[in-house]
Specification:
heterodimer, A: mainly alpha, 8 helices, B: mainly alpha
Chain lengths: 246, 219
């Protein structure tokens, strides 16, 4: 699979079908999910209509982490096999990942004002997501300042992998502080969970966000391949002119 | 081989006309400016003094990070090291050790003087120095890593701060928790052990990564 996609032409062939499919599926999931979240689901007992922010906030935070995990896998592949598309994929995942992180912080701040009466609180989870935003910023800045693409790919993949190892350490250290944010509702064992009328829109929105992430990063990889190709063709005319003269 | 490299770095620093002391000056200026900004009241500053000392040290170290590889990269010494068949890992170990000795150790030694400015009790000063000593290897190693990743970049100064921040956040949290728990629990406080652990993780993960980054820079 990794070898199959290494060829840009083959990747374009796959993405020609996969990208529009993801795009339309994403649109459908967003339409259904937003309708469920904003109109069909009941207001929560102790949050009222403010709970609707959660349907934007929680999937954004999940997908910000998902994007970083995928970015690390792509970096690993790029580092070990010097896979030409994996580094492009890693970079393409970073931009939507950073946007999701920002969205999670922004909506979290709105919800925090609503639920706790404060825009920002230095609790464990918010701090760790803020640090995740810094990691994304450093990663993208490294791509910006390194002119040579291959070297940038290699250095960025090292940074991404070390950053990934550090995420649990950062999480552990900021949890050391007293936490205001509720603990993991779904993932931890013995977690309370919620009723299905809240869980279903949340799941649909998470699906929609994941599809959006996939669509954006596939489009971005396509754009990079086409840009490289255009670059190569732009350098070509001098050569073709001499061939025509001969 | 590492020992001779450390010796070389120290000799170069000593003959640089005092450039290795700039970090120490910055440390002093940062502390003086914070005291002025806070109005100079001992009652106000005493509880936050360990945090200010930690911040002064971290910012001073961050400003020194770019110099770890910059001159060796610019004049081609790094390429010669690589051509001589030397292990880049031992180079990174040597750089981290010489950075600790030249840029962090003088600051830790001057912590008692900073403590005088803030009128800190002796046990807080001692806890501060111990926590900084335990965190110093991790600070130096992540600095070496970021310097290796950004070697040869002109705009590296601000970027190196952004890049090392995520790695220094756990150190800052546990370092200051260690200072506040020292009074109740002494050196057996859990946070001191966590700091040692963070330094060990840094050594096992950051040093090979720094070597790999140097290799990528030189290929």
């Amino acid at each position: 699979m990794i070898n199959f996609l290494a060829n840009p032409a083959r990747f374009l062939k796959v993405s020609k079908i996969a990208t529009p499919l993801m795009g339309w599926a994403c649109l459908a999931a967003f339409t259904y999910g937003l309708w469920l979240a904003l109109f069909a689901s009941p207001p929560a007992v102790d949050h009222g209509h403010g709970v609707r922010i959660m349907y934007i906030h929680v999937p954004a935070a999940w997908c910000a982490l998902l994007a970083y995990a995928l970015l690390t896998i792509a970096s690993l592949i790029s580092f070990i096999w010097r896979h030409p598309l994996a580094d492009v994929a890693a970079r393409s995942l970073a931009v939507p990942g950073m946007a999701f992180t920002f969205l999670a912080l922004f909506t979290g701040s709105l919800w925090g004002k609503f639920a706790w009466g404060t825009w920002w609180e230095w609790d464990g989870r918010m701090t760790s997501v803020l640090v995740l935003l810094f990691i994304y910023m450093g990663y993208l800045a490294l791509w910006q300042v390194t002119p040579d693409h291959r070297r940038a790919a290699r250095l960025a993949s090292i940074l991404a992998m070390i950053g990934f190892i550090n995420i649990p350490i950062i999480k552990f250290s900021v949890d050391w502080w007293d936490s205001l944010h509720q603990t993991a509702t779904y993932s931890s064992p013995g977690a309370p969970g919620t009723s299905p009328e809240i869980f279903l829109p949340l799941l649909t929105m998470a699906l929609a966000y994941s599809l959006l992430l996939g669509w954006l990063s596939f489009r971005s990889v396509e754009a990079e391949i086409i840009r490289n190709r255009a670059q190569r063709e732009k350098n070509a005319p001098a050569a073709t002119a001499t061939i025509e003269a001969l | 081989m590492s020992v001779s490299l450390i010796k070389r770095d120290i000799i170069l620093a000593l003959r640089s006309g005092g450039a290795w002391l700039y970090g120490l000056f910055f440390f002093g200026v940062f502390i003086a400016l914070s005291a002025i900004a806070l109005g100079g009241s001992h009652e106000l500053m005493r509880p936050i003094a360990p945090a200010l000392i930690w911040l002064a040290l971290i910012f001073s170290a961050m400003l020194s990070f770019p110099s770890i590889f910059s001159s060796d990269f610019d004049d081609g010494t790094l390429v010669q090291f690589k051509l001589s068949g030397m292990s880049l890992l031992s180079l990174c170990i040597a750089k981290a050790i010489s950075f600790t000795m030249l840029s962090i150790l003088p600051l830790i030694i001057s912590v008692p003087i900073a403590a005088l400015f803030f009128d800190l009790p002796a046990h807080v000063t001692f806890a501060c120095m111990i926590s900084l000593c335990l965190a110093a290897p991790a600070i130096a190693i992540y600095g070496t890593l970021a310097a290796a990743i950004l070697a040869g970049r002109r705009s590296g100064g601000f970027l190196i701060v952004l890049m090392t921040t995520p790695f220094l956040v756990p150190l800052l949290i546990f370092g200051l928790e260690a200072v506040s728990d020292y009074k109740a629990e002494g050196l057996g406080a859990l946070e001191f052990r966590v700091l040692i652990g963070l330094s060990l993780i840094g050594a096992s993960v950051g040093l090979p990564a720094a070597a790999a980054a140097l290799k990528a820079q030189l290929e």
